[in-house]
Amino acid sequence: MNVFLWILQGVLAALFAAAGVTKATQPREKLIFQLPWVSDVSTPVVRLIGVAELAGALGLILPGAFDIATTLTPLAATGLAVIMVLAMGLHARRKEPQAIGFNAILLIVAAVIMWGRFGPHSF
């Protein structure tokens, strides 16, 4: 189960790192073309989301990899789960069911990591 959790952490970290870097660094106009919801959110909020996603991605991998402050891994998964719940609310308001589905999948993966790393398979 530990290997399975590491695989989930790696996949989730890669997805959130890519998304976070994109949201934190790309110009607003380019982001609106890629992510239409950006037009409903201020630029500082989009940047904050990007930085939070990048921090969550790092938190999924680094504590366990270096065996330092390992409680940060399930906390990072919890933070990413909260971001996904909020994202689902935004996409529900915009009537974007495909985005809600994708966010739900990411939420489930984060919840499995939370369960495993807070519970029976903690570091």
What this model shows, in words?
This protein has 123 residues and is mainly α. Helix content is 80%, strand content 0%. It is built from five helices and no strands. It has helices at residues 2-25, 28-34, 43-66, 72-93, 97-118. Helix 4 (72-93) runs antiparallel to helix 5. The longest helix is centred in the N-terminal third of the chain and has 24 residues, at 2-25. The two termini are 12 Å apart. The model has no long low-confidence stretch (mean pLDDT 97). It is found in: Membrane.
Descriptive tags:
mainly alpha, 123 residues, transmembrane, 5 helices, DoxX, single chain
Short overview:
With 123 residues, this protein is an all-alpha fold.
Task: Lay out the secondary structure.
Layout: H1 2-25, H2 28-34, H3 43-66, H4 72-93, H5 97-118
Helix pairs in contact: 1-3, 1-5, 3-4, 4-5
Report on the biggest sheet.
none
- Class computed from helices, strands and strand pairing: mainly alpha
**Whole-angstrom Rg:** 15 Å
Strand content: under 5%
